[in-house]
């Protein structure tokens, strides 16, 4: 028999609906989340000052939880920019350019290379790292610029970002929202990411080939090469150093993966290893290329990376704070307690849901995927995946199983939609590199992504 729901539970549920409504209307959710934290804190404590303080402490709690991810992404962006400035990325990608002999190979080689680089460097920096080098090659062999953009989008911002197995930013957020270990989400997401990846990329490739055969797509023009403007202060490396760094950087990250497997490193431990490796690479590259002003360049790269990291995660902090409130963070955030028998707001709601209506795994999968899609409509991909995790936990508690699978499904849906595949304002990096219209790129990705979501949701029903 479940716990009797209190006003706190009903207000929390009401604000979940408000947040979903704002996302459907493409409005920012920060104000709604802050209002929710304030009102719930007021109900729990009965104190106006404690409620105001609760807003701040909830932000502190969320930032503490997210800080390792924010920092590692910031550091990776810093390292990526140093690689771009010094030309190391050109050397790393050049061997693959020699393999591109036709439009078909161009699509798949660019896609898988984007997947590999995005796994370690994050998709947005990866677009800059490889786009400027491989795009001219792809155009020369007959692959339209829109085809290059689709490949980079689906493999990078889709497959790599939705799994996020090395940096583990996405599974960290969804796992926290669901109140389950990060490792469980990662393990459950593997078959779903594979299904989603295969369906979306194959569908996109077939549609692309169809339109090329009909003559609807042309190779397009070569956009203006490098994304970084020439600068006399940019670090310069001798060709031999470029080759050495191009060889050793992938080796360092492969060794990180080996260490993760051998020593069972996951979550914060894996993040710390990747972050530390990225810092060392950044220092080595910058000091090798800037003998006189290397110290200043290191600081500049770190500042640029931190600006990027907090710009990406700024909208995430309020909504993450709200959904941490539904799990283990309630007491820490507002210094109040739920009823003794409570298992957390979200789990209590799940128990109540199970007691009043029959909940099946099919309904749970459809609802979680739907919530993931809705949370991705803001174009962030990350801002709402805590909600997807909370909804997954709610249904899993009601069903009695499938928490990790439902959480992974919500994560994949949210990131494929909002992370940079079908929301136009999230497509700007790839569209700009490839000199294509972001709205056209979004339209071309719609059918593959929707098809992939349908198939992946059906597969998830059998895995719950």
UniProtKB/TrEMBL annotation:
It comes from the Bacteria. Keywords: Membrane, Transmembrane, Transmembrane helix. The chain crosses the membrane at residues 6-25, 32-60, 66-84, 105-122, 188-208, 244-263, 269-289, 301-325, 381-400, 412-433, 445-463. This is Transporter. The lineage of its organism: Bacteria, Bacillati, Bacillota, Bacilli, Bacillales.
């Amino acid at each position: 028999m479940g716990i009797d729901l209190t006003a706190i539970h009903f207000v929390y549920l009401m604000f979940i609906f408000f947040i979903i409504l704002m996302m459907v209307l493409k409005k920012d959710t920060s104000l709604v989340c802050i209002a929710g934290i304030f009102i719930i804190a007021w109900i729990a404590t009965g104190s106006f000052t404690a409620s105001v303080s609760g807003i701040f402490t909830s932000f502190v709690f969320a930032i503490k939880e997210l800080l390792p991810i924010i920092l590692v992404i910031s550091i990776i962006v810093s390292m990526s920019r140093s690689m771009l400035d010094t030309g190391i990325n050109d050397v790393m990608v050049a061997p693959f350019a020699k393999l591109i002999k036709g439009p078909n190979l161009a699509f798949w080689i660019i896609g898988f290379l984007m997947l590999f680089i995005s796994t370690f460097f994050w998709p947005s920096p990866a677009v800059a790292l490889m786009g400027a080098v491989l795009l001219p090659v792809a155009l020369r062999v007959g692959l339209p610029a829109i085809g290059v953009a689709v490949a980079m989008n689906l493999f990078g911002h889709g497959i790599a970002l939705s799994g996020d197995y090395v940096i583990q930013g996405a599974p960290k957020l969804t796992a926290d929202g669901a109140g389950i270990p990060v490792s469980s989400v990662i393990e459950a997401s593997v078959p779903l990411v594979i299904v989603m990846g295969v369906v979306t990329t194959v569908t996109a490739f077939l549609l692309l080939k169809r339109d090329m055969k009909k003559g609807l797509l042309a190779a397009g023009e070569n956009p203006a090469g490098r994304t970084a403007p020439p600068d006399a202060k940019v670090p310069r490396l001798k060709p031999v150093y470029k080759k050495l760094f191009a060889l050793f950087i992938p080796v360092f990250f492969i060794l990180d993966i080996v260490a993760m497997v051998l020593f069972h490193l996951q979550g914060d431990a894996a993040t710390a290893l990747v972050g530390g490796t990225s810092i060392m690479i950044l220092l080595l590259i910058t000091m090798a290329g800037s003998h006189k002003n290397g110290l200043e360049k290191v600081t500049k790269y770190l500042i640029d990376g931190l600006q990027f990291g907090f710009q990406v995660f700024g909208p995430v902090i309020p909504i993450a704070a709200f959904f941490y409130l539904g799990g283990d963070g309630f007491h820490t955030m507002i210094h109040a307690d739920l009823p003794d028998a409570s298992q957390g707001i979200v789990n209590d709601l799940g128990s109540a849901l199970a007691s009043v209506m029959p909940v099946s795994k099919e309904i749970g999968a459809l609802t979680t995927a739907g919530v993931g899609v809705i949370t991705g409509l803001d174009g962030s991909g990350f801002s709402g995946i805590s909600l997807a995790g909370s909804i997954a936990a709610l249904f899993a508690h009601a069903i009695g199983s499938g928490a990790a699978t439902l959480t992974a499904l919500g994560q994949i849906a949210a990131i494929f939609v909002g992370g940079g595949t079908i929301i136009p304002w999230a497509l700007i990096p790839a569209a700009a590199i490839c000199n294509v219209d972001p709205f056209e790129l979004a339209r071309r990705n719609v059918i593959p992504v929707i098809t992939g979501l349908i198939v992946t949701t059906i597969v998830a029903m059998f895995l719950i």
